[in-house]
Every structure is written in structure tokens, then in C-alpha cells.
Specification:
This protein is of the alpha/beta class and 254 residues long. It has a single domain, classed as TIM Barrel (Alpha-Beta Barrel), CATH 3.20.20. It is built from 9 helices and 8 strands. The two termini are 15 Å apart. The structure holds zinc ion.
Amino acid sequence: MIFETHGHYDDEKFDEDREELFARFREEGVELVMNIGADMTSSRNSCKLAEKYPFVYAAVGVHPSELEGLTEADMEELLAMSRLDKVKAIGEIGLDYYYGKDNKEEQIKWFERQLELAAGVKLPVVIHSRDAAADTLNILKAHGDIEGGVIHCFSYETEMAREYLDMGYYLGIGGVVTFKNSRKLKEVVEYAPLDRLVLETDSPYLAPVPMRGKRNSALYIPYIAEEIAAIKGVDISEVYEQTFANGKALYRIK
Ligand SMILES: [Zn+2]
């Protein structure tokens, strides 16, 4: 039982073999997939995938690196999408000061706008935060009406993990935890309780060792789960079971 809590299977890199890949997911124990929107087009496509495949759910939202040309009319459309049955979260949304040093104000504006939207429809949020630890935390703290969510591809220190865990957020752990230079993330995984971690890929990106550089998919989640099991000194089956339950609790899937 694997819950892939963050993938971009609407990406064109999956156009050729999406059907076969999803069939293999089922054979390999990937029972649930959350497909994540990153701009308006991928949010729409995310809804379409969720409509077509019973085991796929959708998140809709606009990533901080995809803000160009975004309008209030787009927010209205996101709102309409968020009311669909299989849309279970708003995201990915957040701040990225690694790629966007020059438009911080704009990023903050749309981040807050989408947080408001999420609070209004009572959906959890999928947070993307890169090199923007303090601002992300302060903004989420200021939006106490948010229904929780996940800090996806968690990349900060243990101290920051503690803050988010205290606020009730889950931490998304993906391929990076298998990288040799990921000491910081391994420490976070050791520190955080297993019942607050979820498995994710960020497919098609960030494939784990030994598949680094290849097209990522949920078929590689076992490498991530193995690493987490080793760090926490538990059986891999416990990692699958607990993170599956966590994913369902996070996205409120029955
Ligand atoms: Zn993503």
C-alpha cells in the first residue's frame, strides 16, 4: 500500500505511456496518487486525470515560479475547480526565492491569495517553499484559518520542521532523502514522528538514488521508503502503512 502524495503525471513526459504506467502502479501497490497542479493548465489537467482514474485525486493551484499573467479570473476558475469532488487540496503554492529573487512581493501576494481561497473552501494546502523559510513560516502562521497541509519536498533544518509539526503540518519526503549530500533531510526524518511524514516523488523530477536523472515516478517510491525505514530503524511495511494512513488523513480521503 503506497500513497504517492505529490506527482505531476499530467506532465508531457508521461504522454506516451501514462496508461501503462498507471496499470503498473496498481501492480506494484501504488493504491492512491495525488496529482498536483502547478499552473492553470496543469490544474485543469490534474482535474481531468482525477476524473478519468478512480485512484487519482487532484490538487489545484499556481506555483510561485508560474505567476506570469495570473489574474483574478484565474482565481475564480481555481475556486470552481476546488469544488469538484476529487479535488482534495490547493497546491502547489508557496514561495521560491531560489528561482525568484526579484518578485518576492508578487509571490507573497499570490501565495496569500491562494491561502485565502483554501481557507474559504476548507481544503488543506500543498506548500512549495525554497530558500524562503522565514517568510513561508510567518505567512502560514498569519493564516491560522488554514485546514493544515503538507510542506512538500521538505528542505529545511530540524528546527524548522519542529515549527511546522507544531502547527499540524505534514512533511513531504521524496527522492532527495536518498542523496548522499542530504544529511540535513536525513536528520529531519530521524527527528519527525513517522505519523507526520508522507511519501512523494515530485515526478517527473527528483528521482531517487539509484535512478537519479531518470524520469521519476511512483514506481521508485520503494527507494525512498527503504531509506526512511533505515533511518528510523523500522520495517519498510510499517513505513508504507503509516504513510498511507497519513496521506489519507492529510487529504481527507476515506
Ligand atoms: Zn511539485
